[in-house]
Amino acid sequence: MLENCQRHHMLLGLGVLTGVTILVLIVESRYAAEGPRRREQQFVIENNSTCWRHEKYTVVQECHPCSEFDIVSKSLGVCIHTHYKELLRCQSGEIVTRSCDRVALIEQRNFLKFEILCFIVGALSYLLSYARDRILSRRTYMKIERQLNRVQ
Hints:
By secondary structure, the protein is α+β, with helices and mostly antiparallel strands. Helices cover 57% and strands 14% of the residues. The chain has a three-stranded antiparallel β-sheet with strand order 1-2-3, with no helix packed on it. A hairpin with a 4-residue loop joins strand 2 (84-90) and strand 3. It is elongated. It comes from Drosophila ananassae (Fruit fly).
């Protein structure tokens, strides 16, 4: 079936599939970040402060691992559940430590690894197919040339 398709039709189809994939990824990432299924974290908050829930805040320190001391001593309640914490500064000036998940970052990294692996496998498959096509074309031309030489 692929032998009957013209090259520009195949490239057009591949481009459409690539565009649809990128569109789905964009829509899915926005829906996952803002959608109704967004999981609210029910973790212990240091000093029972929840200013970040009802005020605007800025992230002072991104999500990073808690120290071994914080985890073992349980000095920070936010480190007990996920072993990750981030520092926030609320609009009122209060600095709060909150627990956070590293799952999103890990999933993003794994997704990128998967995409790179798929690209490499696809490129290798293309190169092998191209090389095989060239070999078969050369054999066909040689066979036709031999047949024409016999006739003459």
